[in-house]
Amino acid sequence: MSNWIKKIAAQNAQIEAYLDKHKGRSIRVDIYHDDWCRHKRGKTCNCNPDITFTDCGPSTPESCKEAADMMDAIEKDERERRLSENNNRRNA
Ligand SMILES: [Zn+2]
Predict the structure, then answer these.
(1) For the chain, which end, N or C, has fewer CB atoms within 10 Å of the first or last residue's CB respectively?
(2) Could you tell me the distance, in angstroms and rounded to a whole number, from the CA of residue 73 to the centre of ligand 1?
């Protein structure tokens, strides 16, 4: 799994508390990868990225769509990870 997803998962409780405090707001999530991170070469993140949350004002239909797209990307990444794990097991 991408390190940045692992990092977000590990901070789940804090993130939920943050989102609770910012209900109805649009939150921008920035993920800053190290220069040597494989993510910068189109591969899975292997650094310890800095993740920041910024309040961008009231939620709009566009910001909600962006958030949904991001969740789709996370789910897709997770599905691909599971697939590749299964393939590795089969080839072992
Ligand atoms: Zn990274």
Answers:
(1) C
(2) 16
C-alpha of residue 31 to centroid of ligand 1, in Å: 8
- What lies within 8 Å, CB to CB, of 67 at 6+ separation is 26, 27
Note the pLDDT tens digit of each residue in 63-73: 778 778 877 88
pLDDT at 91: 67
Cα(79)–Cα(53) distance, rounded to whole angstroms?
Answer: 25
Amino acid at 48: N
- Taking only the tens place, the pLDDT of each residue in 48-92 is 999 999 998 888 888 778 778 877 887 887 788 788 777 777 766
Closest CA to 39 of 77, 86, 83: 77
10 CA to centre of ligand 1 in angstroms: 15
Ligand 1 centre and the CA of 36: distance in Å? Answer: 8
pTM of the complete model: 0.63
